[in-house]
Amino acid sequence: MEIPVTGFVVHSGDSDSDHSHRLFITSWDGRPVNRVHVHPIKGTTSFDVGHCHHYCGETKPAPSGVPHVHHYCVETSCNEQHKHLIKGTTGPAIPLPRGGHYHRFEGCTTVSGKIPHVHKYCGSTGNEEECRPQPY
User: Most confidently modeled of 5-14, 25-34, 35-44?
Assistant: First the structure.
């Protein structure tokens, strides 16, 4: 299924090549987007090579009121003198009985450590938090 999306990209002036541009979505499926939202994301990785890692952050913004997923990229805690990155895309929105929604996510971390390894992770985001037109 293809959904038409319009918007614009602005150079942020950030020297980090992964985050040097910000995208502003102005319409989703022909409807203007005035609101976007994010979700808190946190958890603990699997226990591998004698340790686990914690992570905490938030998803990238996505339009409110339409079918959507969120991208995320969070650094883990430093354990055994190294960190990992968790990066991916959530599943679709799951409605909550009293309004709002959450998303499920899962994956494997990047490879890191004196003994190179990955950790598995999975969980659910918290309920959405509205933010007025936010760049991402």
Answer: 35-44
Six-digit token string for 26: 């102005």
Q: What Å distances lie between residue 123 and 29, 69, 80, CA to CA?
A: 29, 15, 23
Q: Are 58 and 39 in contact (CB under 8 A)?
A: yes
Distance of CA 31 to CAs 25, 50, 60, 63, 135, Å?
Answer: 11, 50, 20, 11, 18
CA distance 25 to 10: 11
Structure tokens at 53: 């890692």
> Alpha-carbon distance 82 to 80, whole Å?
6
Predicted TM-score (pTM) of the model is 0.72
Specify the higher pLDDT residue, 24 or 95. 95
DSSP state of 115: T
CB atoms closer than 10 angstroms to residue 127: 14
In tens, the pLDDT along 55-76 reads 999 998 888 877 889 999 999 9
56 by DSSP, 3-state: which? strand
